[in-house]
Amino acid sequence: MDPERAVPERSGTAQQAGSAAPSSRPDDVSTSPSPSPSGGGDGPHTTAAYAAARRHRWLLGPALLLLAIVVVRAFLVTPFGIPSESMQDTLLIGDRILVSRTTTPADLQRGDIIVFDASQAFHLRVPERGLVQTLVEAVESLAGKGQPTDYVKRIIGLPGDRVRCCATDGRLEVNGVAVSEPYVAPGQKPSALAFDVRVPADRFWVMGDNRGSSSDSRAHLGDPGGGMVPGDDIIGKVWVRYWPLGRLGSVDQGQIASVPRNGE
Hints:
It is a single chain. By secondary structure, the protein is an alpha+beta fold. It folds into two domains: 42-75, no CATH class; 76-250, Ribbon (Umud Fragment, subunit A), CATH 2.10.109. It is built from three helices and twelve strands. A hairpin with a 5-residue loop joins strand 11 and strand 12.
């Protein structure tokens, strides 16, 4: 008998213990409802589950916020911190930047500042990480800490370009045109190392603004790939600096103008 249901009373004269009440009609049958196999929809298990859901519903807000951050970081913008002096004076140690992930390699121009995974282009050793370390790094990345193989540099040569150092006046030469570089750190030469390279298809020649303290494409000329960055390894284009607040704003890309594409 279902404990949640009341037993319907039978009309008529009370019967003696152990005797059954005679039916008034031969075909009269009991209409008492059969007990529910599941114990009813409002049983103790359902009530406990509902109470547990109410206790943990406060987690919904933080979970949705975390999901939104992950989606934005993966597809729109990603925060990064500047760990070295290689991009001085454009970007200083401790600067925090946002990188747009919506810019494709085909949209990049000479002078754009990019963040890229240098493990392939610069043949960097990628350390093995366990599950715990991976989770820790994932949390740290939300605050702008990138991987050790994430580099920030400026694009000097596009796919197909010929980049040479140096022209007769000491400037870099791109496709036969000597270019002005106002972003180069004061007192720095365009390059102390002479080079003459042709950038392959879907690769980019990159250099730091602090030319004397930058490990960039020049440092890997003898490696397979010649220090050129594959387009698929580019994480995004630097968009804005959000820290420190005194330097809040867009980052000057310093476009290299008046240079034709190779062969034009």
